């Protein structure tokens, strides 16, 4: 195996739609955690709901815009349901509730009771919900090679999806930048630091937290759509682990930074693919089987992340000074 | 919305006075004392007894009780705060002063009781609404937003900002101008509280005393009608204390009513128009500073017999032993 394949596979992750989906999810989580201090341990729940909202309405024949709206509306309702009972309580309660609620959505999604809608544990296959999205593409049919990468123009894991996904990321990052540097963002950061102080200054804290939960959830739902477009909707592929990947990405890139989620996601997935590809090509099959390489890749990334947390706890882009104060 | 018709007729918002020196030149008074004189005049005829009625109360509390299990932390029959006055709330530790603050500002819910602020019923009103109605408080354990700059902390104190809406936040054109005004106001206040050099530092980098100052300055961003300061002088050095006293008196002259909890008796004596003493949740004495502080009940419960004597002075201790 030549080194070019390893590099092009690893670099492929740089622009992969899944990477973009994780960026979007991490941007949502950044609004929750980085800005407002909400411990959302169920970002995958928002993603899965978004994916279902999109795919189910698509398979029923709705148009693309209506489907995206349905996905976003589901995220809003979900955020309200989670937020109303828990936002008045401490942060740990929100963590518990979001973690549990994401699992509830996944388990309902894969239950046999809803098979005609969600497809049970087999999920919804791509031909049921990706056609309209692919038909929207202005690109000609066929495939294109650009630099190292060759992908189909419109079908499945395509250039079209990449373009849409990264444009969404760019818009989301821009909006986030605007929000971060606005009085609204300042109130959220104030809530992160001390809720009661903000209350004593006359700001309705619960309303702001709710806005934050909804907004972050909307980005989560969008991420879910992008996540399922190159594959199929499978409840188990958007489980707890996804939530923790999103957290890893956010902390890796640096919470409360604009480009942290982008950098975090790119670094994590490129690094992971690179490590796995190198092992596949250098370590003989008799020593470590390919199944083990899959797991070992995560182990190595995990160790790297631990080092990062110890030696650069603010993340790649974070401000070390901010960590000095834990009031 | 605070009713602006009956407050601060001098018409100069507080922050515009920020250019004042923090210390008066020798032999001159720093500020006009119009409100101070009026309050003194009004309170002269008020009887010195707990729960007395006052000529022009801004806050009236009735029958407020708060119990924690079997312990009654606050049990106030009747209490009034004179408008434009500086009222001190003193009392031994555990007397219920801070709990009373929490109740009045909505941070805690009483078991019984009603109270009106400026004629509006305030029982069961949420803390953020209390603040927006013009009653702003500070905390005994200072609350600053550590990972925000000092200036951002101040800006959070500004009320009614269009940029604090989620959608309007995206269009800086809609809030840039107001933001600029707020920054000017904040900087003027910071200058007055000697924090202007720190404005771009994280608030977490401030010392305890500086945080007290920041918290007080932040509370003033909204030009409140009534500020409730919980131990504003704790941890502030003597020189700064003097200028803080001036600030508090300046507040009164703009029409802001001040209620504060404090253990520094000299400060209480120096600036308070009225002193209320709490012990075991009840108001045990009320009156002009001089008469209250010579009340034997207050001396027994709170001040102690040697309140005016510097116990660090060895010669005084010798005298005491002999006596």
Automatic annotation (TrEMBL), chain A:
It is a multi-pass membrane protein. GO terms for molecular function: branched-chain amino acid transmembrane transporter activity. The chain crosses the membrane at residues 60-81, 159-180, 213-230, 242-275, 295-311. The keyword Transmembrane applies. CDD domains: TM_PBP1_LivM_like. One of its GO terms (cellular component) is plasma membrane. Its main location: membrane. InterPro entries: ABC_transp_permease, LivM-like. Keywords: Cell membrane, Membrane, Transmembrane, Transmembrane helix. It is found in: Cell membrane. This is Branched-chain amino acid ABC transporter permease. The lineage of its organism: Bacteria, Bacillati, Actinomycetota, Actinomycetes, Bifidobacteriales.
From TrEMBL, chain B:
Residues 59-305 form the ABC transporter domain. The keyword ATP-binding applies. One of its GO terms (cellular component) is plasma membrane. PROSITE patterns: ABC_TRANSPORTER_1, ABC_TRANSPORTER_2. CDD domains: ABC_Mj1267_LivG_branched. It holds the Pfam family BCA_ABC_TP_C. SMART domains: AAA. Keywords: ATP-binding, Nucleotide-binding, Transport. GO terms for molecular function: ATP binding; ATP hydrolysis activity. It comes from the Bacteria. SUPFAM superfamilies: P-loop containing nucleoside triphosphate hydrolases. This is Branched-chain amino acid transporter ATP-binding protein. It comes from Bifidobacterium moukalabense DSM 27321.
């Amino acid at each position: 195996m030549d080194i070019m394949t390893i590099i092009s596979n690893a670099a492929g992750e740089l622009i992969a739609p899944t990477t973009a989906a994780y960026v979007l999810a991490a941007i949502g989580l950044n609004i929750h955690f980085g800005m407002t201090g909400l411990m959302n341990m169920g970002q995958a729940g928002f993603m899965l709901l978004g994916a279902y909202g999109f795919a189910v309405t698509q398979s029923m024949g709705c148009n693309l815009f209506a489907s995206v709206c349905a996905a976003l509306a589901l995220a809003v309702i979900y955020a309200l349901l989670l937020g109303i009972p828990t936002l008045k309580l401490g942060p740990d309660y929100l963590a518990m509730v979001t973690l549990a609620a994401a699992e509830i959505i996944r388990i309902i999604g894969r239950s046999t009771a809803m098979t005609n809608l969600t497809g049970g544990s087999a999920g919804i296959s791509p031909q049921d919900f990706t056609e309209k999205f692919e038909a929207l593409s202005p690109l000609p049919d066929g495939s294109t090679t650009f630099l190292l990468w060759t992908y189909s123009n419109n079908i499945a894991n395509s250039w079209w999806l990449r373009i849409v996904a990264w444009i969404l990321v760019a818009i989301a990052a821009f909006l986030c930048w605007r929000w971060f540097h606005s009085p609204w963002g300042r109130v959220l950061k104030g809530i992160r630091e001390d809720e009661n102080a903000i209350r004593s200054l006359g700001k309705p804290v619960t309303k702001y937290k709710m806005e934050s939960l909804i907004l972050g959830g909307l980005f989560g739902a969008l991420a879910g759509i992008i996540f399922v477009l190159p594959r199929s909707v499978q409840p188990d592929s958007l489980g707890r682990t996804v939530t923790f990947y999103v957290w890893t990405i956010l902390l890796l890139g640096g919470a409360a930074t604009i480009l942290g989620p982008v950098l975090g996601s790119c670094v994590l997935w490129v690094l992971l693919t690179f490590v796995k590809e190198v092992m596949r090509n250098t370590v003989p099959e008799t020593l470590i089987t390919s199944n083990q390489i899959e797991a070992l890749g995560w182990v190595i990334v995990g160790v790297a992340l631990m080092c990062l947390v110890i030696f650069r706890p603010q993340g790649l882009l974070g401000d070390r000074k901010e960590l000095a104060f834990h009031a | 919305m605070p009713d602006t018709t009956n407050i601060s007729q001098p018409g100069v918002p507080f922050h515009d006075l920020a250019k004042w020196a923090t210390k008066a030149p020798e032999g001159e008074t720093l500020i006009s004392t119009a409100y101070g004189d009026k309050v003194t005049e009004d309170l002269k005829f008020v009887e010195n007894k707990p729960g007395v009625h006052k000529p022009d109360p801004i806050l009236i509390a009735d029958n407020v009780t708060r119990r924690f299990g079997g312990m009654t932390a606050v049990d106030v029959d009747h209490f009034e705060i004179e408008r434009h006055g500086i009222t001190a709330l003193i009392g031994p530790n555990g007397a219920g002063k801070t709990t009373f603050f929490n109740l009045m500002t909505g941070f805690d819910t009483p078991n019984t009781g009603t109270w009106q602020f400026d004629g509006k019923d305030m029982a069961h009103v949420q803390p953020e609404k209390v603040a927006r109605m013009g009653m702003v408080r500070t905390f005994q354990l200072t609350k600053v937003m550590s990972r925000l700059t000092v200036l951002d902390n101040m800006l959070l104190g500004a009320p009614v900002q269009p940029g604090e809406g989620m959608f309007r936040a995206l269009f800086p054109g809609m809030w840039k101008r107001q933001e600029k005004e707020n920054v000017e106001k904040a900087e003027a206040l910071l200058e007055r509280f000697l924090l202007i050099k720190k404005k771009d530092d994280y608030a977490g980098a401030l010392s305890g005393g500086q945080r007290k100052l920041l918290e007080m300055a932040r509370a003033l961003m909204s030009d409140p009608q009534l500020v409730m300061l919980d131990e504003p002088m704790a941890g502030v050095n003597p020189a700064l204390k003097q200028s803080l006293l001036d600030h508090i008196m300046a507040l009164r002259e703009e029409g802001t009513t001040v209620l504060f909890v404090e253990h520094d008796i000299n400060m209480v004596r120096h600036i308070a128009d009225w002193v209320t003493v709490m012990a075991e949740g009840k108001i045990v004495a009320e009156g002009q500073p001089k008469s209250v502080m010579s009340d034997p009940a207050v001396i027994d419960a709170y001040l102690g017999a040697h309140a005016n004597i510097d116990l660090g002075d060895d010669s005084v201790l010798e005298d005491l032993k002999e006596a």
